[in-house]
Sequence to fold (215 residues):
Amino acid sequence: MAGMKRLIIVLILFCITFSLFASSGLKEKLEAKIELINVSSEVKVFLIAMIPIFELRGAIPIGMLKYELPLWKVIPIALAGNMFPIFFILLFFDFITKICFKVPFLKKILEAIFARTRKKTDVIQKYEEIGLMLFVAIPLPITGAWTGSLAAYLFGLKFWKSILFIFLGVCIAAVVVTFLASLKWIGAGIATVSLITVFIVNQIKRRKKIEAAKL
Fold:
């Protein structure tokens, strides 16, 4: 039992670090690895949705367009896969931090992850549970259930409220992603324009903060 608990803790810590620092090239490698697993398409969609750099926003398009699964299968499977790790993150992360903070190297890694998460989750700090739902609902690379659950822990939100609002956010994200995936190339174009817009807005905000700090 103790060994299983340690394994879960190591997996959660690894996945959170991986989520925040992974590059886009790793997505392709992971997808190729999953493709080699001898399981059904439904199980592959579930596994993809569990991975922090994919989550539901990657699992639904792959399930719809690559595996050609019907929506009534893809959406609930992706939802379940995306939410499955969140329970363990919120349950065990307090225990993880207490252990890791005793090791200087791991403490530095966690502090870097925490600082990065706080910078990216202002909306959660301001609006709490509603902010958490909105943050998870927007299907962008820096958002999602994994980062949302970490932010919920950092800002001290209650467990069951966090689960509920993360789930609501994931449901909204599922609607958005399904709509974009159904449009195929047009949806890809809309997503690309949205990403570029978000990047430009973030850069403008960053420059304003730097200029304000100089004054």
Q: What stands out?
A: The chain has two domains: 2-182, 185-215. The chain is about 85% helix and 0% strand. The first helix runs from residue 2 to 21. The chain has a mean pLDDT of 79.
